[in-house]
Amino acid sequence: MGGDRSSLITEAIRLIDECRPRFFIWENVKGTFSSNNGEDFWAIIQAFTNIGGYRLEWQLLNTKWFLPQNRERIYLVGYLGNGSGGQVFPIRETTRPNIKSSKKKHNKIVMPTICTNYWRFANDTPVIKVKSATSKGYEEAAEGDSINYSNPNSETRRGRVGKGVAQTLDTTCNQAVIGAMRGRYNKDNKTVQQIEINKNGTSNTLTAVTKDNLVVNNKIRRLTPIECERLQGFPDNWTEYGESGKISDTQRYKMCGNAVTVDVVEAVANSIIKTIY
Fold first, then answer.
1. How confident is the model over 199-220, as pLDDT tens digits?
2. Domain span at residue 63?
3. CA dihedral defined by 269, 270, 271, 274, rounded to 10 degrees?
4. 43, 180, 217, 222 — which has fewest CB within 10 A?
5. According to DSSP H, which parts of the chain are helical?
6. Rounded distance between C-alpha atoms, residue 187 and residue 122, angstroms
7. Are residue 219 and residue 122 in the same domain, yes or no?
């Protein structure tokens, strides 16, 4: 709470006190609960309480309830009222919209691939060993799993593999995903494992049954800005242009990593509407 960036919370509290909105939402990382042995979080709660007139509720929500990204964030809602009426929280995983029946378009996440030199088979499933500070010294990633390759030579990093879900996007978005593989016959009439290639200049997308993907030789392909946008619930190319023209990929990654997840905020907003209106 003593850092320069933490001064933003005092400005937010000042604005709430001066403008008296009917409700407000405050979002922050999970670590806020434990920062300074929990004293920082309760200091923030006390500051919001001191404004007066607001009922406060909060919950730890995870993007993976809605989209394939493991992103835990605290959502705190304050709304004017006399203490009666409904509650904004809890929001449960079971309350998420039914993607299959929803009219909203949910784009799939393009799945990158990895060099086949590191593949082995476990129970007839292709897996890859990923260096990690576990008792084995590695984790195993299979089709549909993500890999975080920040600091690849680190001897202390753990949790590099996300099982069926991307790990939390940050400002660098150094993640890749294990692509699907299937047996094919090459020109020598030998069965080999290889990726099917989309030859029309576009990326294939992951569905429940697809085995198509891109081929990148000898390295893990980084998630693209579009993939990061999809993991945050934004439309494709939402971050591509700004007022001054086209935005660099580096800045697009930063924007996606710093953004809140659209689907999570939508769920919170819908609950607020039901509660205060």
1. 444 444 544 444 444 433 334 5
2. 7-96+261-276
3. 120
4. 217
5. 7-19, 39-51, 225-231, 249-258, 262-276
6. 27
7. yes
